[in-house]
Amino acid sequence: MNRPLTPDSKSDLSLAPKRVYIETYGCQMNVADSEVVASIMQMDGYHLTEDPELADAIFLNTCSVRENAATRLFGNLGQLAAVKRERPGMQIAVAGCLAQQMGEGIVERAPWVDVVFGTHNLDVLPALLERARHNSAAAVELEESLKVFPSTLPTRRESSYAAWVSIAVGCNNTCTFCIVPSLRGKQRDRRPGDVLAEVEAVAAQGAIEVTLLGQNVNSYGVGFGDRGAFAKLLRAAGSVEGIERVRFTSPHPAAFTDDVIEAMATTEAVMPSLHMPLQSGSDRVLRAMRRSYRTQRFLGILDKVRAVMPEAAITTDIIVGFPGETEEDFQATLDVVEQARFASAYTFEYSPRPGTPAADRDDQVPTEVVKDRYRRLDALVRRIAHEENERQEGRVVEVLVAEGEGRRDAVTARISGRAADNRLVHVALPEGLAENDYAGGAPRPGDMVTVRVTHGAPHNLIADSARCGRELDPRAAAANEALKPGDRLWLDDGPALFQVRRTRAGDAWERRQAEACATPEPDTAPVSLGLPTLRVGAPV
């Protein structure tokens, strides 16, 4: 995943003496860590930039879960070498899981890198940059265990309306394919009071959605002797004033308990969304992976969740080609996927990670076999996801409008965001309403919009209900049908529906924009109370 953080403003950058470019690879943990680093760098006098060629410092936050992460890192470092030759004072820092794994090896392969540090000492970047500058030599500093809990450090959150809240770092599991425990360490839990204090703080800043973050959230509480702590935390987070949506990632099926399911079902703010990593549908392979559950246990969890939350969207992770995987094992995975009916799945070709037990096995599956199986799995996952999304057609959903979720929104006259079940929804604007016409009724990022799903695509939903309730003339209909699926309108026979609810989160986003543009707000600025329905869609 490639996620440069957004700068405060172009005008600020033009005046800034120091600029930092931040790029993140990997999981949500890395994204949250990058937000911490962004804040630390800003406190040290840096401004954020989206252009690495303008940066005085470049920070690359790496992932090590897949082999291609290293390939991408060194490919990017090779390109940055030329940039650095043209900007002699520019510094390059590499951190994250790959840095924790390779250490000095990064500097040996890319001697133009100035700083390398790991996952346990996020707060050291400014000091290491200065040390490297003073000594004219690379500064490498790795810690074997966590020194400062990331959530205790200042955080420049990428979003004003949604926030990551870390509840634990590290993992106590021993999955034979996974390198995370050796890089992130054993699980360390935050105290519930500290977690809730952060949830309350982000709510006070305007956020209405929080994601509770950890490598294995449902084992939260083991560190302080309360195995029911995660269910209690879900309920408590869902009761924080101002928080409308709570979700979490990622649980482990072996430790997932009924009290968590009950908390999800009975806490209104908890989203009907669950990411439940399968990894394999073969019990034999699961045993070799040391996953501590079997397929019937896994499917039983899904049945329990759907019994109390029929609308739940369940996603998963699946690995193809684990050492020793036979065609029979792979067929078992296909069978479980067919039964599970996942809303979507993250699928991976097995990648040997140095230092993991699975990497040393002598029964690695041939590459061509892995690729063929991956192709077959991908086709099945796509088909089921498409069918499940088609089942959503006609549903009325409330979408939290977001920035950057729809890459073609400007072309298609849509805005994008997530429904309550975390499905991505592309929403058509009423005819004549521009995306940024907030005074005219367009929803701001952070606002909620109620629409009707008109089309289920393989990876998203389309809600063009703002333009429904009317017929296109023959020429317009033909032109519409000729468009690519993502570009065409999807009309149904229902009435037009496009209802906007302005929220505290939208207010927060608007304040951030004003601050970024150095626009003073009037002393008498009105306070939004989140009252619903500013505009009902285009006339029939």
Task: Explain the overall architecture.
- This protein has 17 helices and 21 strands.
- With 540 residues, the protein is an alpha/beta fold.
- It has three domains: 10-141, Rossmann fold (3-Layer(aba) Sandwich); 150-390, Alpha-Beta Horseshoe (pyruvate-formate lyase- activating enzyme); 396-516.
- Helix 8 runs parallel beside helix 9, helix 9 runs parallel beside helix 10 and helix 13 packs parallel to helix 14 (367-390).
- The chain is globular and about 70 Å long.
- Residues 1-16 and 519-540 have low confidence and may be disordered.
Topology:
Layout: H1 10-15, E1 19-24, H2 28-43, E2 47-48, E3 57-62, H3 67-86, E4 91-96, H4 97-102, H5 104-109, E5 115-117, H6 125-135, E6 139-141, E7 162-166, E8 168-169, H7 180-184, E9 188-189, H8 192-204, E10 209-213, H9 229-238, E11 245-249, H10 258-266, E12 273-275, H11 283-289, H12 295-308, E13 313-320, H13 327-340, E14 344-349, H14 367-390, E15 396-401, H15 409-412, E16 414-418, E17 424-428, E18 448-452, E19 455-456, E20 461-463, H16 474-482, E21 499-501, H17 504-516
Parallel strand pairs: 1-2, 1-3, 3-4, 4-5, 5-6, 7-10, 10-11, 12-13, 13-14, 17-20
Antiparallel strand pairs: 8-9, 15-16, 15-18, 16-17, 18-21, 19-20
Helix pairs in contact: 8-9, 9-10, 13-14
Spans where pLDDT lies below 50 across 5 or more residues: 1-16, 519-540
Largest sheet: 7 strands, mixed
CATH topology of the largest domain: pyruvate-formate lyase- activating enzyme
CATH class (first level) name of the largest domain: Alpha Beta
Give the N-terminus to C-terminus distance in angstroms. 42 Å
Q: Share of helix among residues? A: 25-40%
Specify the overall morphology.
Answer: globular
* Secondary structure: number of strands: 21
Strand content: 15-25%
User: What is the domain total for the residues?
Assistant: 3
CATH superfamily of the largest domain: tm_1862 like domain
Cα radius of gyration in angstroms: 24 Å
Class inferred from helices and paired strands: alpha/beta
Which second-level CATH architecture of the largest domain applies?
Alpha-Beta Horseshoe
Mean pLDDT: 87
Cross-sheet strand order for the largest sheet: 19-20-17-16-15-18-21
The number of helical segments is 17
